[in-house]
Design a protein that fits this description.
heterodimer; A: alpha+beta; Heat Shock Protein 90; 5-stranded antiparallel sheet; 42% helix; 23% strand; B: 112 residues; alpha/beta; Transcription Regulator spoIIAA; 34% helix; globular
Amino acid sequence: MKLFDFIEIKVPAKPEYVGMVRLSTSGVANRMGFSYEEIEDLKVAISEAMTNAVTHAYEKREEGEVTVGFGVYQDRLEVMVADHGGSFDLGRVKQEIGPYRQTESIENLREGGFGLFLIDALMDKVEIKNDYGVIVLMTKFLHENEVGLDDDQISTTQ
Amino acid sequence: MKMNLEVEVVENGSTTNVLLAGEIDAYTVPKLKEALLPLTERQNQLIEVNLEQVNYMDSTGLGVFISALKSTKQYKSELKLIRLQDKVKRLFEITGLDSIITIDSTVRGGNV
C-alpha cells in the first residue's frame, strides 16, 4: 500500500503565481481536514517559500521555474518548494531570522527579513537544503482526533 | 493576470485614510508600496490604514508597513493600522512588530 499521495505543481518563478500556489495549498489542506487557522498558517508559510524562490530568480535574472510538491500523508502534509537556481548562504540566513526585539532600533529593522522566520513559526518542522538550488521542506501535522487518540492510548497502557 | 488588491486613499485634513481590500503578497505588494509610501513622506500627518477587507497578508506586507513606519517617523507623522482580521493581526504578534506599530483592531461600536 502506498504510504502517501504526491502532488506536484510547476510554475514560472514569477510573483503572479504565488497566489495560485496558495490556492492549491488551501485546496489540498482543506481536503485533508486541517482547521481554518492551520490552513491560514500553511498559506502564509508556502507563500513565503514561494516569494523567496521568486525573488531569488529575479535577482539572478533567471527565467526559472519553481517546483512545489505536496506529500499527503494520513497524519501530516509535507510541502516542498524548490527553485533550481543558484544557492544562498544558509549560515547567513539562519543568523538573520528571528522576531523583532524591542532593544533593536527601528532603523535596523530588516524589511524583508521575516519570511523564513514566519515559515519556522507557522510550520511544525522545517528543513532547508542548499545542495542544488534551494529546497525548503515544511511539515504540518494534522491534529484532528488527537484528543480521542490520546485517550485510547492512555486507556490501553493503563 | 488580475491583481487582487484594491487601494483607496481618502484625504481628510491632516488625516489620510487608506482602505485596502484583497490580498497582500509578493505580486500585489508593489501596488501597495507605490500608493502608501508617498503618503508617509509628508509632515505631521496621521496615516490610518484600514485592513478590514484584507483577507490575506504575508511578510511582504509586513515589509511595506515597516518602511511606512520608518518614513512616518522621519517626517514626524504617525502610522496607524486599524480593523485587522485576526489572521493578519497574528503575523504582527508573532514577529513582535505589534510592539512598534500602532495597531487598533477594535471595531467601532456605532449605534448598534
